């Protein structure tokens, strides 16, 4: 089996430092903002990214684990396979959220829709069609 290696394009600066305080879903985060600080070499990739735009953010669950293929849904519900949840316990530790761009300043995107921990490595951004 071949290895797949990704290099983060940037890191999230989030007010959340532990999973217990963080919203379980990006739509639950309200008006709290965070910042995505991109690596300088990706500045040109921000051309066309504007306030109000929705982006799909793909990230690495850097504090997740691969130990369970089944978890309690939403932490307290019935046992469910991880592919039917948003659990950070996953075979490849890849997460996804939708963010709303508040401001772009150089290589920093301020955004709404925060459901990731501080220091989360970001793998990619994609336009989210509504």
UniProtKB/TrEMBL annotation:
InterPro entries: TrmO-like_N, UPF0066_cons_site, YaeB-like, YaeB-like_sf, YaeB_N_sf
Organism: Selenomonas ruminantium
Protein name: tRNA-Thr(GGU) m(6)t(6)A37 methyltransferase TsaA
GO MF: methyltransferase activity
A Gene Ontology biological process term: methylation
Pfam families membership: TrmO_N
Gene3D superfamilies: YaeB-like (2.40.30.70)
Family: Belongs to the tRNA methyltransferase O family.
Keyword Oxidoreductase: no
PROSITE patterns: TSAA_1, TSAA_2
Ranges where the TsaA-like domain occurs: 6-130
